[in-house]
Amino acid sequence: MLAELIHPIAAMDHEEWEFRPRPSNGGPDTCLRKMAYQAYDAPQKDPHGRFLVVLDDSSWHEELVLQWLERTVFHIHSRQLRIACGTTIWKGQPQTINGQIDGIVTDLFGVDRLLEIKAIEHFTFQRYADGAYPTNYFTQVVFYINGVLTLNPDLREALLLIKNKNQSAFLEYRLRYHPEEDRLTVVEITHSNGTHTFPNQEFIGLYRQALTRFAVLETHREAGSLPIRPYENVRNFHCDYCPFKKMCWEGMTRIPLAGQRPMRAELIPLAQEFIELDEKLGPLEKRWKDIKQLFQLELRANGVQNLYGGGYTVNSSVSSQNRLDESLLPKELVARSKRATPTERISIKQVQSATTHTAVPDAPTSLAS
Ligand code: SF4
Which ipTM was obtained for this model? Predict the structure, then answer.
């Protein structure tokens, strides 16, 4: 009687916001091509009412979290404060990148920290709890800190609080920002289950990178072109949830790559880092496998599922995967079912001759690409 009504009502009330550069869309995980479609106001698939209700209830979760926090000894203030977080060129005109913060939290020692609250679904939360970093949210925080600094030049830290909407678990990132170097450090991660880690992980250039992305987007907008698809194929969750998926991939044929061009200057240190990581990963992975095998042997030799001691615990668990047993199928059927799937390998080597590299902008592709 009622259950079927809510999603259609949400869809009826939905209004699309005009696209513009914002702190929330500057992060490196947002598809630039999707942003270009939004900038062109390209026809998009209407969002399902269920999706809109999911977004709406995230805002309510965030509001409820703020209400809980207001009952603690921390002082929450400057809620929904509007700030100017930087400027960019948009539609040929200088444009202020505006932001609206969730608030500022002041502790008992009078230290102010920016507060940003997110409420997300279980699987993404679990990815973060397992160690992936929410870099889009970090970028948003960096924009907000840059904005707040114009009002409070002493503010250097932020608390990013992420709620698991399904289980009400929380992850808190204490972040420190050095605006002069555009350097964000993940100082501490606290899980509501009581675990604390101090990764001291640095992200350098999130703010600059976001401004560069907005500038590249503006170049495409002016040229009527689209950035290249950043994904190998359509089978990824970014495209699955993208309202431009059909338009973006329809008729797409894979163009064989050929020829060469100078590398963009900002990629050169990454090429060096790739080589260094590659050299370290091989021996590290071998050592990791050796240790794992040693523990497996130890568990088997003792006939136990768990070893503990010195603050560590080693567990053995068994999981199963469904795989086709080809030996049970007729040989012709197996042969006919096999397809060659191309896999792309990237290798990077250092070349000996000294070459001067200059920054090369993204090559625009045509709208039809
Ligand atoms: S379908 Fe995928 S590649 Fe295309 S715009 Fe959307 S997210 Fe980007």
Answer: 0.99
